[in-house]
Specification:
Strand content: under 5%
CATH class of the largest domain: Mainly Alpha
Structural class: mainly alpha
Radius of gyration: 27 Å
Mean pLDDT: 83
Helix content: 55-70%
CATH architecture of the largest domain: Orthogonal Bundle
Distance between the termini: 67 Å
Number of domains: 3
Number of strands: 8
Low-confidence stretches: 290-295
Largest sheet: 2 strands, antiparallel
Length: 711
Amino acid sequence: MEQFLAYGVVGLSTAAIYAVISGGLVVTYTTTGVFNFAHGAVGMMAAFTYWQFSAGWGWPVWLSLIVVLGILTPLFGLLVEMAMRPAQALGEAEKLVMTVALLSGLIAVARWIWDPNEPRTLPMFFADSEPIHVFGATVTWHQALTMAVAVVVALGLRVLLFRTRTGTEMRATVDDRSLVAITGADPVRANRIAWVLGLELAAVGGVLIAPVVALDAASLSLVIVSAYAAAIFGRLKSLPLTFVGAVVVGCMESYLTGYLPQNQFLPGIRLAAPAILLLLALLAFPHGRLRGRDRQLSPVPLPSIRGTLFFAGAIIWTGLILATVLSDSDLITYGQIFAIGVIAISYVPLAGYAGQISLCQITLAGIGAIACARFGAEGQWWAIIAATAATGVIGAVIAVPALRLSGVYLALGTAAIAVIFDRWIFTLPAFDAFGVRVSFFDQGSIEVVGPSLFGYAIDTPQRTTVFAAAILALATIAVAGMRRGRLGRKLIALRDSEAAYATLGGNLLTSKLLVFGVSSAMAGLGGALFGMQLGSVTGDQFNFISGLPIFLVVVLAGLGAVGSGVFTGAALAGPLNAIGVLWPALREVSQAIPAIAGVAFGARAVKEGGIAALRKQWDTAFADRIVMGGLVAWVLVAWLLRIGDVINGYVLVTMLIVAAIATPLVAANRLRRTQPVGPTEAPVPVEWRGLSRPWQPEDEEELDRVLATQS
């Protein structure tokens, strides 16, 4: 009985911390309508900063707490509110990317400032005081403090939100900001208070939990998964139910630690338990209307056949250039462009076309790498096909329980699935099931061998790079073909309005399973290529945190753009790797670049993405055969000079950069010279197209949108 009480005390003290953190999460969401995925990362940064002041520099505890909780955290909250304010006009995926960017960026910054290989510990509060004995259970003063703080926070939030004018403004702001402003309230002030208060509670929770866990950036940031589960208990709006959920999560973790049988299969389930509970809560509890949900959807461009084929050819040519000018070691690093690109392009049909936000694509990529390694241990040509198909089926199965979720709930559900695989499934040892040997990463690494096609083995970095480039080119063509076909139009209709789609005869179940299966198959194919490029991979390379930069850059590029794949691969495997090679001291901080770009993206309230901006610059060049011929000739000459060792790699890169900058400028200059002077022709109204000028395929889609808007 004493042991049961002891585990109960530990569970309640942990639950108190989760209650504080999840309370701040609910306050922020209830007021602003933005679900803050970076909530735990803010607590992590507060814990590291507190350690730096108190343990690293020897400051008094009281002074460290005042600086961290009283000065730095409120200032950071104000900065976050300023950055998030323009994001109110964005769609769900674009709004989500802001907080995901903060999560990824804060982890990268923490790893840069504080060496992750150096162990750090924080003493508990009142560690020298005698513990309290209650009914045979021992309660430390640190545990008592956490429980007391949770009670104070619960009472304080209740009074603030339901007994003060400020609280009323905060709760009303998310529903209709303009209506709140008419009453004389200030919605900006309400949002500012919510962000500061929410992040303050995250920081308090981070400082309280840091002494009882390891000071690790990723682990502390993912403590928030437990708080997510607690918040879902309260359906992201009820503080009492959120606190009940925190008690359930905290006690469950504690009792699993004490009573879970000890064997090689179950330790991971204790680590994954909060994510499992989060997923079950998402599926079990009804969810009301998403707070502050809007229909500010990003446009989905219609790619032309000619442009897509040219782009696919350029991808393959890029692979050939890399394979012939880079060394084997460099190809292992920079050849990842195409494998990462295939993983990235899997987001386009799923999130860009169908509007289904998934944060577990990197997990599916890991499954693809595992399947390819198991099926193709001896280079079987069909292994990569089998891995792609198997991942597609698994992705469709994973999607079944998530079909009733949408928006931020779907993002949370897929994030929970990713964490479950990270902490449990991928760590399992090999076992037999129904006479079949099942093996994942064998608690270490696995080797992924390239296939043999028509007697030609893909067994060198050069061949793997060209092969991956060809696969990415085919995937780009397939996604573009999907967009131009009936399936693409159906998926976009599904994204625009699920109710209208079902009313008009669309099958939601079939469409969602299909798009989840197709995108999962692409992600698995990308994971297999990634494994081939590196030769050997581990489970850590496919964890939840590793997949966040891919999601970030895809959104920055444009979720609906077919060029998002190569754009993401080039961004993550190109400049970021080069920074780490040229300036090793900046390796960690360079990982924060996608996060910085994500915050800047949201702050500017950009809806179209980077590829749309590039396309506007290059449209004139693509239409000018002389300019494009000159570009091809310039790149060809530079390539041949490098192959002949006439120039080195730096000169080659410089020549390519010059070509990329100069080409649209030259094309624009030529257009100005050849364009007749005079008034420009006014655009033809959509209702006159087909009469005053020939009808074009994109006109049908624009007409449908105009009619839908008017209805």
